[in-house]
Amino acid sequence: MLNNWLFKQIDNSALIVFRILFGALCFLETVGAIFTGWIKRTLIEPDFTFNFIGFEWLQPLPGDGMYYYYSLMGVFGLLIMVGYKYRFSMICFTLLWTASYLMQKASYNNHYYLLILISSIMVFLPAHKYASFDAKNHPEIKSSSMPQWCRWVIILQLFIVYTYASIAKLYPDWLDASVIESLMRGKANYFLVGELLQQKWVHYILAYGGILFDGLIVPLLLYKPTRKYAFAASIVFHLFNSFVFQIGIFPYLSLAFTLFFFPSEVIQKLFLKKKNYYTNAEIRLPKYKNAWLALFFIYFIIQIGLPLRHHFIEGDVLWTEEGHRLSWRMMLRTKTARTKYWVENKANGSRSLIDLNAHLTKKQVRLASSKPDVIWQFSQRLKEKFKANGQDIRVFVDCHVSVNGKPYQRLINPDIDLANVPWLVFKHSPWLLPVNE
Predict the structure, then answer these.
(1) Where are the beta strands (DSSP E) in 40-90?
(2) Residues whose CB is less than 8 angstroms from the CB of residue 11 and which lie 6 or more positions away in sequence, other chains included
(3) Residue 373, SS3?
(4) Which letter does DSSP use for residue 189 in this model?
(5) Where in the chain are the domains?
(6) Who contacts 406 (Cβ-Cβ below 8 Å, separation ≥6)?
(7) β-bridge mates for residue 337, sequence order
(8) Strand order in 335-345's β-sheet?
(9) Tens of pLDDT along 49-90?
(10) Strand pairing of 351-353 and 393-403?
(11) What pLDDT sits at residue 3?
(12) Which helix (H) or strand (E) holds 34?
């Protein structure tokens, strides 16, 4: 029964149009990173980058190498858009984007992670079988249909993302709109809307509107009577986010996802008028259907389970950030810190204060002052740097953090040598002190 449902053929108009938009957005994201100066600030100017732990070998290419790197990604985006060597182009873009994501954390964004997931999914989708150079050059692959799972894999991924994002907002600082107030404080100089964004009633609308939108948008788009209203709400929500938070292509990618919620005949009539609309509803079981089903279930078990891991780690994730990443915890808090690093020479016990500005960019200083994993990484780097000069050292950090404007509290035990403790991936690090509520 499940096989018949997943592998029933449906019209592929939504997937074809999505491929074109997806490729165009990938091109704009990568080229935009070049022309806005993001690559220069994030990957070229720093002496090194804070990688995801375990990927320290992934460092930016020297010189202007990252400009060429992102230009190549842009080319693959265009090839995806026009459907030329689609599978190869999609694999290459996914690998390059994933490597870039793992390469640095100074500009961490949940949406970058989502692009990895969607790109990985797109590798397996037959998105090049119509309106593409591949279909033109190889007419035998041309098709107006796709298995039904191709639509639902995207919808289920979105449902997971939005649902976790909604649930994560159900905590006091979000519900009293203080988080939104903090986020909007820096937008006071925005043209026309800056003053409006400082109003408390607006903060409450945005706080509770965010919970409702994230929690309900996928069901409302799936339900025919509410679909048009949900789509209108999506346009307002995502354009607002694009203007206020300036988060790249994500708002437009999110709008492109709505293609999968509308009837395919509507998509075909609007965008692919010359395409024959598929109605046969054949069931075509692939040769390795069990392997496909296993891959499908394993992937979504990971997607459902990974954002839950912080519940099994001691401490408040908003404070320790253990289990924060890859969990769709988006724009949930503001954080400021007062942090000092000391290095102690093991040979003579002498201590010296580290000037962070002498080692890091301004953006990296903010990370190395408040984020536990980056603080640990920088401690390891200091150890290696002093070791290269013939000194064996200990590193001690005195870090006081304020979350959402609350009083500063000590985050890290200042008596622990962070240069000589391991990083625990799925466990609580004992050198992180609990928050005093």
Answers:
(1) none
(2) 144, 145, 146, 264, 265, 268, 277, 278, 279
(3) helix
(4) T
(5) 12-146, 148-247+286-330, 334-420
(6) none
(7) 401
(8) 351-353, 335-345, 393-403, 409-410
(9) 999 999 999 999 999 999 999 999 999 999 999 999 999 999
(10) unpaired
(11) 83
(12) helix 13-35
Mean pLDDT computed over every residue of the chain: 95
Q: How many helices (H) and strands (E) does the chain have?
A: 18, 6
Roughly what angle, to the nearest 10 degrees, separates helices 149-168 and 289-305? 10
Containing 344, the helix (H) or strand (E) segment is strand 335-345
| The total number of residues written for the chain in this structure | 437
Residue 187 has pLDDT above 90, yes or no: yes
Q: What pLDDT score was predicted for residue 286?
A: 86
d(CA 327, CA 308): 7
pLDDT, tens digit, 9 for 90 and up, residues 345-356: 999 999 999 999
pLDDT score at 246:
87
Structure tokens at 18: 């999505």
Neighbours of 297 (CB within 10 A): 10
Nearest to 236 by CA among 217, 222, 261: 217
Amino acid residing at 146 = M
Across-strand partners of 398? Answer: 340
* Calpha distance 83→64 (Å, rounded): 29
**Is the Cβ–Cβ distance between 119 and 30 less than 8 Å?**
no
pLDDT above 80 (res 271): yes
Continuous segment of H or E residues that includes residue 231: helix 224-245
> For the whole model, what pTM was predicted?
0.95
pLDDT value at residue 292 = 86
| Position 39, amino acid | I
Residue 192 has pLDDT above 90, yes or no: no
**Residue type (1 letter), 64:** D
Using alpha carbons, list the distances in angstroms from residue 430 to 240, 398, 402, 415, 423.
Answer: 41, 15, 20, 12, 10
Which of 39, 25, 129, 35 has its CA nearest to residue 77? 25
Q: What is the pLDDT of residue 177?
A: 96
Cα atoms in the 13 Å half-sphere on the side-chain side of 167: 10
Take residue 248 and report the two structure tokens written for it: 């790249």
Helix or strand or coil: residue 10? strand
3-state secondary structure of 326: coil
Read off the pLDDT band of 330 (50, 70, 90): confident
Q: Are 354 and 343 in contact (CB under 8 A)?
A: yes
